[in-house]
Amino acid sequence: MSSTLSDVFRSHPIHIPLSNLPDFKALPDSYTWTPKDDLLFSASASDETLPLIDLSDPNVTTLVGHACTTWGAFQITNHGVPSRLLDDIEFLTGSLFRLPVQRKLKAARSENGVSGYGVARIASFFNKKMWSEGFTVIGSPLQDFRKLWPSHHLKYCEIIEDYGEHMQKLAAKLMWLALGSLGVEEKDIKWAGPNSDFQGTQAATQLNHYPICPEPDRAMGLAAHTDSTLMTILYQNNTAGLQVFRDDVGWVTVPPVPGSLVVNVGDLLHILTNGIFPSVLHRARVNHVRSRFSMAYLWGPPSDIMISPLPKLVDPLQPPLYPSLTWKQYLATKATHFNQSLSIIRNYLSSDQIS
Ligand SMILES: C=C1C[C@]23C[C@@]1(O)CC[C@H]2[C@@]12CCC[C@@](C)(C(=O)O1)[C@H]2[C@@H]3C(=O)O
Ligand SMILES: O=C(O)CCC(=O)C(=O)O
Ligand SMILES: [Fe+2]
C-alpha cells in the first residue's frame, strides 16, 4: 500500500515545545527578529505587482506560463471556486482560532504527527518565534474537529471536504495550463491517471492565523520559505501580509484582491520543470490593526511516485539538474535541510544517495 504524508513525519519527528505558542499580548525578545535571525529579514521591498490572471482570458496558457517562469507565483480570478465556499472556509478558520487556547490544545499536533494545532513546522529552523498559530489538516479532520467542536464538528468537516475537492480540481487545471505553456502534454505525465485529472494526488490544508501585533516591524508571521509542493493555492482574508521574493526586486507584497486566490510554484514543480518554473520564496508579515487569516492548499503528487525533470524539458544542452525522488523523500530532506533542500539534492544526481 502506498504511504501517506503522515508516514513521513512519523520517521522525522520535530520537537517544538508548546511554550512556543505565543501569548500575542506583547513582543518579548524571543519574538523580535533582526537580520541576524533571517538574512532576508530586512531585504528591500518593492512596489512591483504580482501578475493577476483572469482564468477566462483566451490567452490564459501563455499568461500562466509567463507568471510561473518569471515569478513562480500569480493571483487568479474567475477560478470557479464558489465565493460561498471561500466565505465558509474563512468562517471556519476564524471560528477555530477564536476558540479558547485550552480547547485548541486538545487538538495539538503531536511531535511525530502532521495534522492538528500548533506552530509551523519550520519554526524549528529559527531562533526566534513566529507571530502566528496554525492548524494542519491531512486526510479527514473528523477526530481533531470533534475535540474542537464536540457538537458542530460535522458541519466544519463538510466545509473542509468541499474545499479540498474544489482545490484539487483547480490545482489539476492550473497544472495543465502551466505545463501546457512548455509544450508538456497529458501523455507526458502518467501519474496524472487515466483521465489526466490527477486523482490520487495528496494535499494538506494549512489554516494560518496572524494575530494583531504590537510591533509588526520587528515581528515575523511566517518566516521565508518555499513550499515542498507541486503548487500551493492560497486564500487570504482582506488583510495584506503575504510577500514573495524575487532576487532582482526584493520583497513584493501580494495585496488581497476580493475573491481571488494566490498560486505559487513549489519545490516539486521546480524539479519537474528542471528549474524553468522557480519555486518562490515567500513569507507572511503581520500588522498592528487587524488580525489576518490565510488558508493554504498545499498540493503534491501521490507520495511514492518518482518525480524528476520531465524528459521533454531536458536535452544535452539542458541536462537534468535534479535526481528522481518521491515527495516522501523530498519532505524528509526538507525536514533536515529546510531552504537548502533543492541545492542539496541538486548535488545528488543518483537517487540511491537520497534516503
Ligand atoms: C505537505 C506539507 C507541506 C508542509 C509540510 C506538510 O506536511 C504539511 C504542512 C506544510 C507547511 C505549511 C506551512 C509552511 C510549511 C513550510 C510548514 O512548515 O508546514 C509547509 C510545509 C512545506 O511546504 O514544506
Ligand atoms: O499566510 C500566508 O500568506 C502564507 C502562508 C504560507 O506560506 C503557507 O501556509 O505555506
Ligand atoms: Fe508557504
Automatic annotation (TrEMBL):
It comes from the Eukaryota. Residues 197-301 form the Fe2OG dioxygenase domain. Coiled coil: none annotated. Its cofactor is L-ascorbate. It is an enzyme of class 1 (oxidoreductase). Its EC number is 1.14.11.15. One of its GO terms (biological process) is gibberellin biosynthetic process. Pathway: Plant hormone biosynthesis; gibberellin biosynthesis; Hormone biosynthesis. Belongs to the iron/ascorbate-dependent oxidoreductase family. GA3OX subfamily. The lineage of its organism: Eukaryota, Viridiplantae, Streptophyta, Embryophyta, Tracheophyta. The keyword Oxidoreductase applies. Pfam families: 2OG-FeII_Oxy (PF03171), DIOX_N (PF14226). This is gibberellin 3beta-dioxygenase. GO terms for molecular function: gibberellin 3-beta-dioxygenase activity; metal ion binding. Keywords: Dioxygenase, Iron, Metal-binding, Oxidoreductase.
